[in-house]
Specification:
Number of helices: 6
Number of strands: 0
Order of helices and strands: HHHHHH
Shape: elongated
Distance between the termini: 23 Å
Radius of gyration: 18 Å
Structural class: mainly alpha
Length: 201
């Protein structure tokens, strides 16, 4: 019990830090995405905003029982899948209507976000004996870090080729990464539910 009591403040502090950092990065992505006409940047803004909500769920779950934690993780997984669908719709709209993403803006924002997301990922990875919600939070941060690398490459290609398809491609890739992460979180939550049900018998 003492080890759990010592662990909770560390988890709470870590989640508060990553929540605030993700909220700031989400605002940065939205602003630069609108200014730079970039689907990839806006997609990652939505991603980081959904991450912020998930970290809030995780904070609440720290003081609740296992059932509540599992449900919060399931909600996180569903949120990721919904977010992926929204990205695909935006990419489709930009493909049909056209767009003119600004490569340097994409590269600058992705580099800043990569540093912030790496810090978040390392903080979450340092936590020991993570529950289902903290594992979900770690999955989100890892997905963000990978997506940032994709935006950096896409920005360079947009600058070099003068075309919008690299931006759209990263938007689609971000959506697929979100689908993969969402499915993993839902599988993890279902596994936790089974373990809890067996313990109750």
């Amino acid at each position: 019990m003492r080890s759990s009591a010592r662990k909770a403040p560390d988890e709470r502090r870590t989640l508060w830090v990553v929540l605030l950092l993700n909220a700031v990065i989400a605002i940065g992505f939205f602003a630069t995405g609108l200014l730079g006409d970039s689907s990839a940047l806006i997609a990652n803004g939505v991603d980081n905003l959904s991450d912020t909500a998930v970290y809030a769920f995780s904070l609440i779950a720290l003081s609740r029982g296992q059932t509540w934690k599992t449900r919060a993780a399931s909600a996180s997984g569903v949120m990721l899948l919904i977010f992926a669908g929204g990205i695909l719709l935006d990419v489709g709209r930009r493909y049909i209507q056209g767009s003119e993403p600004i490569g340097p803006t994409m590269m600058m924002m992705s580099a800043v976000a990569a540093v912030v997301n790496y810090v978040c990922l390392r903080m979450l990875q340092r936590l020991k004996q993570k529950d289902v919600n903290l594992r979900a939070a770690t999955t989100f941060s890892f997905n963000d870090f990978i997506s940032n690398g994709g935006i950096l490459i896409a920005g360079a290609l947009v600058l070099w080729l003068g075309a919008n398809w690299p931006d759209l491609l990263v938007g689609v890739a971000t959506a697929l990464i979100a689908v993969k992460g969402g499915m993993e979180i839902l599988r993890d939550a279902r596994a936790e539910e089974k373990i809890s049900a067996e313990k109750m018998r």
